[in-house]
Write a structure and sequence with these properties.
By secondary structure, this protein is of the alpha+beta class. It has one domain. About 10% of the residues lie in helices and about 30% in strands. The protein is built from one helix and eight strands; from the N terminus they run αββββββββ. The N and C termini lie far apart (about 40 Å).
Length: about 140
């Protein structure tokens, strides 16, 4: 019992000592991306995407089908590639585009820190990805 308590306290101390940034342990920055509202007027509204972290992020994304004309090329999975768009966002920066982020669709994304990465997908028909940082090898 005492070993469990000591182990739990050690784990809590380790977690508490590291600064929290909205990202997973696999170096993904996906949790840094937030949808904060909409821009434009119906029917030409778009999601507004924001980087909520204090580091630059590179983002790959796509969306579900939309009724907005001109958006079918950025739908997830078109042409055998899941993610269709890529952008870089500085800390606090926002982005909005009716053709790649239409408001009547759902966005799907992956993101990596600092934009010095390779966005790797083992299966292009899946949203699964990993960030490969060549300078950390």
């Amino acid at each position: 019992m005492a070993i469990r308590i000591i182990g739990s306290l050690f784990a809590f101390a380790c977690i508490a000592l590291f600064p929290v940034e909205h990202a997973r342990a696999d170096d993904s920055a996906s949790n840094c991306i937030a949808l904060i509202g909409y821009s434009g007027k119906a029917p030409r509204q778009a999601h507004i995407i924001r980087n909520t972290c204090n580091r630059k992020v590179g983002m790959a994304y796509c969306h579900s089908p939309s009724s907005v004309p001109g958006t079918k090329d950025s739908v997830c999975g078109v042409g055998g590639q899941y993610y269709q768009q890529r952008i870089s966002l500085n800390p606090g920066e926002s982005h909005s585009n009716v053709y790649s982020e239409p408001a009547d669709s759902r966005l799907y994304w992956g993101a990596c820190f600092d934009n010095q990465f390779y966005f790797k997908q083992n299966d292009p028909s899946s949203s699964a990805f990993r960030c490969d940082y060549p300078n950390k090898r």
